[in-house]
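Appendix B.2, paired examples.
Example (i):
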Amino acid sequence: MDQKGAGLMTTETKPQHAAEVAGDEPVLQARGLVKLFGRVVGLRGVDVDLYPGEVLAVIGDNGAGKSTLIKCLSGALTPDQGTIRIDDRTVSFGSTQDAREAGVETVYQNLAVAPALDIASNMFLGREIRRRGVLGSVLRMVDKPAMREQAKQFISELGITTLQNIDQAVETLSGGQRQVVAVARAGAFGSKVVILDEPTAALGVRETGQVLKLVRDLRDRGLGVILISHNMPNVFETADRIHIQRLGGMAGVITPQSHSMEDAVAIMTGAKTLSPDEWHQRG
């Protein structure tokens, strides 16, 4: 995306509070997702509902199908069966770029930032704003001042105070600051859904708090956020609803108000079973 502005959200184009956009219709809906890897079942008939202005946590033990589910929703994998809908429109993602064009942004554990580039360049990585006229269309020259200005504006709107110098190289940032850059980039371009895979892994307490605040800020701007995490306190502090995966299937959907962390672990391990009537399809 080379157009000026490149989809970066502003206060005029993005709601400031989830209540302004929260409705009865999910922004992302998946039904009956199945993914097979030879004889290994990655997903077996998984359903997902994500609403605007909501943080939906996805938890589960190793091998539960969390990563496979996220890759199917983000275009990294194509499900063998099932449907995915964005804003009540059936979509078929052949790549992560297809998902991005539909408004779904994903931040994986490896971050995919370019350490040698500055913060502004990383914010627009793969979506650089080109200079006007022949310089941009023919010579493909990048409009660095425009990218710096828009990146600075968005970081300011999100209330991010840990990134003081937009021209600072990412390789000089701490792990938490790098994660903030990656999450902020996803929020800037994800017009509907942001998927975060273990965003607080290997972070200290203070940096974890900064990232979780940013997650809540994205939710409050009306985005649907999917949060994958092994950290139960983080999940229960941040999520509106919690989708539990077990052995490739869906073990239940709970809320921090309806169940405890001990309940969540018991459901993950199979020690406790929920009936479909107990599932919180909407928080």
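Example (ii):
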Amino acid sequence: MTDARTIADLAVEVRSKNAGPFWVTMELFMRDAAGYALVADPAYLDASMVARLYGVPADTIQIFRLPALNVVKISFPRPVSQGSLRDRDIHAGQHHVPLALYPLPASAPAAG
């Protein structure tokens, strides 16, 4: 067993999806309550962190913490509308990668 280094190391799944032509939703399905507690902590994951990762204004980001399911959902406006000429991911299926690869603090629990 090695120490976890990214959010993906503590998650069952990290995914993103189209939430209509103007929004993206990402979901962090954490393996257990300890992993959920870490990523759900506003001191670790907040709108300013997501804003830095995705280049969107922090005041447009919505974060939903669902402790009963060990899930964190994040929604924000798409940088370009779905299907537009500059849209490189029409289904928003790859938007989750920067979040999944976000480093964990040194005190993070080991992946299991």
